[in-house]
Amino acid sequence: MWIYEKKLQYPVRVSKCDPRIARYLVEQYGGADGELSAALRYMNQRYSIPDKVVGLLTDIGTEEFAHLEMIATMIYKLTKDATPKQLEDAGLGPNYVNHDNGMFYNNASGVPWTAAYIATKGDPIADLYEDIAAEEKARTTYQWIIDMTDDVDLQDGLKFLREREIVHALRFKEAVEILKADRDTKKVY
Amino acid sequence: MNKQLDEQYYQKLLELQQLDFGLVELTLYLDTHPNDLQALQQFNQLAQQRQQCAHQFEMQYGPLLQFGLSYSKFPWQWVETPWPWQV
Questions:
Q1: Angle, nearest 10°, between helix axes A124-147 and A35-45?
Q2: Which end of chain B has fewer CB within 10 Å, C or N?
Q3: Measured between CB atoms, which of B63, B66, B84 is closest to A8?
């Protein structure tokens, strides 16, 4: 089971109301390489992966939910004081008409989240390579978003998330080596 | 919001977030390096510090966890604001 903790993993601050950047940030909420995809991908792979790496998938998957909450917090803070006119000017008119200020799992182009974003092959090496690629893609997306804003408070939170992707990718690469080493040991029954 | 968020709230919260960051890092590291005794000792030491820090925070600002993992004063404090995104 999971226990919710009533705090963010890392402080989230924004220095201005900015629906324009919120619109792009949604990519990391309900996009292919976003935090929802990441969390569900790892949690779902646990049932067919060797025991040695189940702990890692569980813990990284859990951390991704904390990141999902950070992204939601950023979007919430960036848009809560925006008028419908400001939202429309930022290209969020269709989103406003459909969801008002409610959060919705879609990507920056408004395409709803789909399970097709997450892969499970059942093959441990294939799945872990998928995870490494996903982390690298998320890291890249964070960099592009950081490049598109001059809000240093927002950049601070985004940089934290970008660095976490790097650590996760590193741990997944180690997990691959653990499985390879295990595969190559001679087993006597 | 029915609670005053003073400077101290943010400071205490940050302290807890810093300890938790060390613990998250050590957790993921130990997941792939289970035989690193030094890292394990650091983990256990931080876990103890974290427990004390979280306890102090909860006494002052209310429960961090539910389902019986945190205590509550009367009336039931879990439903009180602020929620994390409101901080």
A1: 170
A2: N
A3: B84
Asked if B67 and A3 count as a contact pair (C-beta separation under 8 A), the reply is: yes
Phi and psi at A106, nearest 5°, equal -135, 170
Confidence check: pLDDT of B3 > 80: no
Residue B2 pLDDT class (50, 70, 90 cuts): very low
Residue B75: asked if its preceding bond is cis (omega within 30°), the reply is yes
* Cα angle for residues A113, A117, A118 (degrees, 5° grid): 120
Nearest chain A residue (CA) to B22: A9
pLDDT digits (tens, 9 = 90+) for A96-117: 999 999 999 999 999 999 999 9
Task: Kindly list the structural domains of chain A, giving each domain's residue range(s) and its CATH number in brackets, ordered by start.
Answer: 19-110+118-183 (1.20.1260.10)
ipTM associated with this complex: 0.94
CB A171 within 8 A of CB A56: yes
Active site residues of A: 35, 64, 67, 135, 165, 168
Instruction: Tell the residue number behind the tokens 């390096």, with chain if given.
Output: B33
Q: How far, rounded to the nearest angstrom, does the alpha carbon of residue A91 sit from its chain's CA centroid?
A: 23
Nearest Cβ partner for A72 among B13, B64, B85? B85
Determine the Cα–Cα distance for residues A66 and A137; give it in Å rounded to an integer.
Answer: 19
Cα-based distances in Å from A100 to A34, A80, A103, A109, A176: 22, 10, 9, 17, 44
For chain A, say whether B31 makes contact (Cβ under 8 Å): yes
SS3 state at A185: coil
Among candidate residues A32, A40, A36, A61, the one with its CA nearest the CA of residue A137: A32
